[in-house]
Amino acid sequence: MPQSKHQLGRHSNVKFLSSVPGAAMEKRYTSMVLLLVAISCALAKDMGKKETKETTAKPKLPQTLSRGWGDQLIWTQTYEEALFRAKHSNKPLMIIHHLDDCPHSQALKKVFAEHKDIQKLAEKFILLNLVYETTDKNLSPDGQYVPRILFIDPSLTVRADITGRYSNRLYAYEPSDISLLYSNMQKALKLLKTEL
């Protein structure tokens, strides 16, 4: 009988000892899971703060209106809106006619967008870029070609006297004409002060 008691005691010790490590393992796993959850929550909060800082620090203007001509500039959506804003803000309107699939338009757009002085001066204009023709025939005085840039003063007069360097396409500009475009933008602003 003492033998069986001894065996029984040994078996009960084994059961007791094996259940203790199981409980310890369960506590460890629970602790690890809780630690991972806490770390995940902390990282999620940090990510949320970074996203909030980025979005509130620099508001992104809709790229569809700039179409790559200067994302930081304020562009009007329609010809009618541009005319209204030009008249009521007493700023000249600059209209850029172009096509997305035209290599000449793309080349001019790249130079226009990268030219710091033009981008700065453009802030003084109401800006509109069109990838379609308007019904206003005054916007195509010598034909419908692209790229074509016209200026309209706040009295809603197309400034036919502000032209590019080509006699057969008066309002056309190429990337090499960027200094002439800058000069014409200055001229549009100067005429605004002297004529209106």
Task: Describe the protein in words.
With 196 residues, the protein is mainly alpha-helical. It has 6 helices and 3 strands, in the order αααβααββα. The chain has helices at 2-57, 63-66, 79-89, 103-114, 116-122, 178-195, and strands at 93-97, 126-130, 148-152. Strands 2-1-3 form a 3-stranded mixed beta sheet, with helices on one face. Helix 5 (116-122) runs parallel beside helix 6.
Quick summary:
This protein has 196 residues and is mainly α. It has helices spanning 2-57, 63-66, 79-89, 103-114, 116-122, 178-195, and strands spanning 93-97, 126-130, 148-152. It is 55% helix and 8% strand.
Keywords:
196 residues, mainly alpha, 3-stranded mixed beta sheet, 6 helices
- β-strand amount: 5-15%
End-to-end CA span: 121 Å
The biggest sheet amounts to: 3 strands, mixed
Number of distinct helices: 6
Number of strands: 3
Helical coverage, percent range: 55-70%
Q: Mean pLDDT, nearest integer?
A: 82
Q: What is Rg?
A: 35 Å
Q: What order do the helices and strands follow?
A: HHHEHHEEH
Strand order across the biggest sheet? 2-1-3
Ranges where pLDDT stays below 50 over 5 or more residues in a row are 1-19
What is the topological layout?
Elements: H1 2-57, H2 63-66, H3 79-89, E1 93-97, H4 103-114, H5 116-122, E2 126-130, E3 148-152, H6 178-195
Helix pairs in contact: 5-6
